[in-house]
Design goal:
- It is found in: Membrane.
- Keywords: Membrane, Transmembrane, Transmembrane helix, Transport.
- The protein is mostly helical and about 325 residues long.
- It has 2 domains: about 220 residues, Cation efflux protein transmembrane domain (Alpha-lytic protease prodomain-like, Up-down Bundle); about 100 residues, Cation efflux protein, cytoplasmic domain (Alpha-Beta Plaits, 2-Layer Sandwich).
- Strands 1-2-3 form a 3-stranded mixed sheet.
- Helix 2 packs parallel to helix 7, helix 4 crosses helix 5 and helix 6 runs antiparallel to helix 7.
Length: about 325
Amino acid sequence: MAESGSESTLTVVLAGAVNLAIAIMKAIAGVLTGSGALLSEAAHSVADTFTEILLLTALRRSGKPADFAHPFGYGKERYFWSLLAAVSIFASGSMFAFYEGFSTVFGERTEQTKPIVGYVVLALAFVLESVSWLQAMRQVRGESRAQNRSISAYLRMVDDPAPKSVFFEDSAALIGLVLAFLGLLLHQLTGSSLYDGVASILIGVLLALVAWSLGLTNLRLLIGSQADPVVVRGIRELLAAAPEIEAVVDLQTMLLGTDLILVCARVDFDDTLHAADVERACVRLAGELQEAYSDVHEVFIEPVPRTDPDLRAAVLARYGDIATRYGHAD
């Protein structure tokens, strides 16, 4: 858990430093060349820089220990600040790119000057962005392998938005640089600024898609997503295998933050057990769950009768047909 946080911090800091340097170069090149696409890319890098600041804030604040006001800790703050980062990409980067693109396409024709400066800056930016992208890819690949998942499956299920945000940003940055290069080149070859404007609009669309994807990820996590289905299945099997438990009636999990899982289980204990036996079983099972799954942070086990009609109805209403398939309401 600590190692993952350190890796995320390195990924974010490296991306932020790279984006700041690139933003300055692109802005200067955009002014010198008169390229709307380059100015859009400068806004893109500025937005990415703000994004990294927000992600660093997320990493720092989400690590605060639990207190009286927040007994489950501050883990979900990571999702809030990461959501603001997604909004920043759209508001600062995408909107400016759209403005620059439509102004170039429908406004007065602009003359291109010193295109060689733009090519040099784009080449340097591509190299620097590649360094940041490789670090993000290294983290994503390493964590996906550790979870025995493909990269695409890992990115769908990830509970740490930082590496996904940087990976998506850097991937969009590399694509955006190619679009800016094509806009600059076609403007030079044809003498028409239309291509430069179209490149800016495409960069705006690209950033909007990235912002939307990251926003949906953080929305899912903020409203209380369940834990990894593989972990949930393992928790259910561990509880069901306990000699004191006759049936797992209901199992609910929620991500309290990155690598922090809340487990709430309703189980039907053997009716021959005494109260003290149930208490000891609850304590033992909580320890076994935390030992088997390091991400399990809090465990609540409630003894209930599996035949209770109201409870059964509530479980079936929540899970539907899946309830019977996975034994939620046996």
